[in-house]
Specification:
The complex is a heterodimer of chains A (199) and B (357). With 199 residues, chain A is α/β, with parallel strands linked by helices. Chain A is built from eight helices and six strands, in the order αααββαβαβαβαβα. Chain A has two domains: 49 residues, RecR Domain 1 (Helicase, Ruva Protein, domain 3, Orthogonal Bundle); 92 residues, Dna Topoisomerase Vi A Subunit, Chain: A, domain 2 (3-Layer(aba) Sandwich), CATH 3.40.1360.10. In chain A, helix 1 crosses helix 2.
C-alpha cells in the first residue's frame, strides 16, 4: 500500500480488525470505498453508525437487540422454561433459521479461556444463574462450540446448573443432514459413532 | 512414495531451485553452507509444515524477502499429487492438488518423509523433550487421530496451567478441563504405546544390521503408567499442581527408554555409537511407515555419509531397502560414497543453485 496517508492506513487497520479479513482484503475494501462514488462510503458509515447506536444487549438473554427485552424474550408463545446457551449472537441466528427450536436463549459473548483472561465473571454467568432462580426454567441446553474452550465451558456450566436443580443437556455432535458420511471429517465421525442413539 | 519434482523459491539461501530426484539414491553434493541442508529442510517443510532447525519461520526467508514458495510433485501409489506451501508475511498456506487446506491433519501424511540430521543424536543424548519431539513428528505423519489428540491435549494443558497460575484457582473451573485432558491424554498414550512397540522390534534389528554392536532396546516410558489412571493421577497430584502452579504429571512428561546392552544409551558408548543408535531409530521409522501405509517414505540423510567409514557406509546402504527413494547430502564432490556400488543420481549445489551432475 503506497498511499502516504495516515487516514487511509487507519481505515485499512479498521477493516483488518474484522473477523476473516486479511491485509489484502482490507486494502481492497478501503481502496474501493475511496475510489467508488462517495455515496457508497457514506451509506456504509451511516448504516454502521446507526446500527451500532441502536443495537444493545438484551437485559434478559444478552442477545443483540433494538428493543429491550429482545423480540425472542418478549414472545409469549415461546417456551420460557427452556434456555439454550450459546457463545455468540451468530449462533442464535443460525438456530432460529432452523425454525424448530421454540425455547429462549442466553448469549455468553465468549467462552472460558484462562489464556485470554476470560473467567466466569467476564462471561457474566451470574446473569444466567439469576434466570434459574425462580424455578420457571426446566431445562438448559448447552450449545457452546466443540472447541476445547467450548467443551470446558459446557462442562463447567453443567455442574453449576445441576447444583441449582435444573436439568442440563448438551447438543448432540454428529454428521450434517442430507450429506454423505464421506464429507464429514474423522473427528466428527468418531464423535457421531460414539454418541450413537438406540433405535 | 516417489518425489519426482521439488521447486523452491526464496527459501533460506535457495533463490530458485528445481530439483528432480531419481528413484533410488540421490546425492546432493556441495561444499559447506551452499544450501544442502536447506534443500532437505524445504522438503520437510512442505511435508510437515515445520522446519527441523527453527521454530522462527522468518529465518526460513531469503535475506530481506517477505515470502517463500515451495511446490512438490510426488507419486503416491502410482498417482501424482502436487503439494504447495506458501509463506507470506507470517501466514502459511498449503494446497494439495491446487485445493487450499485448512487443517494441519490434511497436510500431514500426503508426503511421508523421514529425515536424519546431525541434531538427531539428541534422541539418544538429549532430554526427554527431544524424544517426545521424535515420537510426535513421526506419529503425526502416520496417525491422523494422534495429531488431533495432541493438539487438543496441548491446548487443554495450556489452559489448565494458566488457571493454576492464578492466586486461588477455582476447583470447579479446574475440573472443567479434566475430561478433555484425560480423554486426549489416553488417546496419545495408546498411540505412543502401539508406535513404540512396533518400532522397538524394527529398531533392534536395524541397529544390528548397521553395525551398532550390542543390542539396542527401545521401550515406551509413560509418565503415568496406565492410560486409565490419568483421572486418578490428576486427583492425586492436585495439591502438588496447585503448589507448583503447573500440571505435574501426564503424557507431556513421557519419555522413550533407549538401552544399549541393557544400559541407558545416554551413558553408554562413544558419540559415534550414540549416533548409530539415533540413525537406527529413524531408519526403523522408514520400515514402520511402510507397514502402516503400504509405501516407503522418502528418506533424507543429512551429512551422514562423511562420518562413516567404508564398512559402516556399506552396511548403511545394505540396510536401506532398494525401493526406498533416498536423498543424501555430502561434501564429497566426485564419485560414489565409500563402499557403495549401486546406481545413483548426482546433483551439485553451489551458492543456492542446483544442477544435475
Amino acid at each position: 500500500m503506497f498511499i502516504e496517508s495516515p487516514r487511509v492506513t487507519r481505515l485499512i487497520d479498521a477493516f483488518r480488525r474484522l473477523p476473516g479479513v486479511g491485509r489484502r482484503s482490507a486494502e481492497r475494501m478501503a481502496l474501493h470505498l475511496l475510489s467508488a462514488p462517495e455515496d457508497i462510503a457514506y451509506e456504509l458509515s451511516d448504516a454502521l453508525r446507526e446500527a451500532r447506536a441502536s443495537i444493545r444487549w438484551c437485559s434478559v438473554c444478552s442477545h443483540l437487540t433494538e428493543t429491550d427485552p429482545c423480540p425472542i424474550c418478549a414472545d409469549e408463545r415461546r417456551d420460557h422454561g427452556l434456555i439454550c446457551v450459546v457463545e455468540q449472537p451468530f449462533a442464535v441466528i443460525a438456530i432460529e433459521k432452523g425454525g424448530s427450536y421454540k425455547g429462549v436463549y442466553h448469549v455468553l459473548h465468549g467462552v472460558l479461556s484462562p489464556l485470554d483472561g476470560i473467567g466466569p465473571s467476564e462471561l457474566k454467568l451470574d446473569r444466567l444463574f439469576r434466570r434459574l432462580e425462580d424455578g420457571a426454567v426446566r431445562e438448559v441446553v448447552l450449545a457452546t462450540n466443540t472447541t476445547p474452550e467450548g467443551e470446558a465451558t459446557a462442562l463447567f456450566l453443567s455442574r453449576q446448573i445441576a447444583e441449582r436443580g435444573v436439568a442440563v443437556s448438551r447438543i448432540a455432535h454428529g454428521v450434517p443432514m442430507g450429506g454423505g458420511l464421506e464429507y464429514a471429517d474423522e473427528a466428527t465421525l468418531a464423535q457421531a459413532i460414539q454418541g450413537r442413539t438406540k433405535l | 512414495m516417489l518425489l519426482s519434482l521439488h521447486e523452491v523459491r526464496g527459501f533460506r539461501c535457495l533463490t530458485e531451485v528445481r530439483f528432480e530426484p531419481a528413484p533410488g539414491l540421490n546425492l546432493v553434493r556441495g561444499r559447506n553452507a551452499q544450501g544442502k541442508t536447506s534443500l532437505l529442510e524445504s522438503i520437510l517443510f512442505v511435508a510437515t509444515s515445520k522446519s527441523h532447525r527453527t521454530a522462527q519461520e522468518r529465518e526460513l526467508l531469503l535475506h530481506e524477502a517477505e515470502s517463500f514458495h515451495l511446490r512438490t510433485v510426488l507419486e503416491r501409489r502410482g498417482t501424482p499429487v502436487t503439494l504447495e506451501a506458501n509463506w507470506w508475511r507470517g501466514t502459511k498456506r498449503f494446497k494439495v492438488n491446487g485445493v487450499p487446506q485448512q487443517r494441519m491433519s490434511d497436510i500431514l501424511g500426503q508426503l511421508n518423509v523421514v529425515l536424519f540430521s546431525p541434531e538427531d543424536v539428541d534422541i539418544v543424548k538429549g532430554g526427554a523433550s527431544a524424544r517426545r519431539r521424535f515420537m510426535d513428528m513421526e506419529l503425526a505423519q502416520v496417525d491422523k487421530g494422534y495429531l488431533n489428540a495432541l493438539q487438543l491435549y496441548r491446548q487443554v494443558l495450556r489452559q489448565r496451567n494458566e488457571l493454576l497460575k492464578r492466586p486461588k484457582p477455582d476447583r470447579d473451573l479446574l475440573r472443567a478441563w479434566e475430561p478433555q485432558f484425560v480423554e486426549s491424554g489416553r488417546a496419545i498414550m495408546e498411540s505412543r504405546g502401539r508406535f513404540l512397540e512396533e518400532l522397538a522390534a524394527i529398531a533392534t534389528e536395524t541397529h544390528a544390521s548397521i553395525g551398532g554392536g550390542e543390542a539396542l532396546q527401545v521401550r515406551y516410558e509413560p509418565d503415568v503408567k496406565q492410560a486409565d489412571q490419568l483421572q486418578e493421577t490428576l486427583d492425586k497430584y492436585l495439591e502438588s499442581d496447585l503448589r507448583r502452579q503447573q500440571t505435574t504429571r501426564g503424557p507431556h512428561r513421557d519419555d522413550i527408554g533407549l538401552f544399549i546392552a541393557e544400559r541407558p544409551a545416554r551413558d553408554y558408548g562413544s558419540q559415534g555409537q550414540q549416533k548409530t543408535a539415533a540413525l537406527a531409530m529413524r531408519l526403523a521409522v522408514v520400515e514402520l511407515v511402510r507397514q502402516r501405509t503400504g509405501e516407503y517414505p522418502v528418506l533424507m540423510l543429512d551429512e551422514v555419509l562423511a562420518e562413516l567409514d567404508a564398512d559402516r557406509c556399506q552396511r548403511l546402504f545394505l540396510a536401506i531397502p532398494e525401493a526406498v527413494q533416498c536423498i543424501a547430502t555430502t561434501t564429497q564432490l566426485e564419485g560414489a560414497p565409500a563402499g557403495y556400488a549401486g546406481d545413483f543420481a548426482s546433483f551439485l549445489i553451489e551458492g543456492g543453485r542446483l544442477e544435475r551432475r
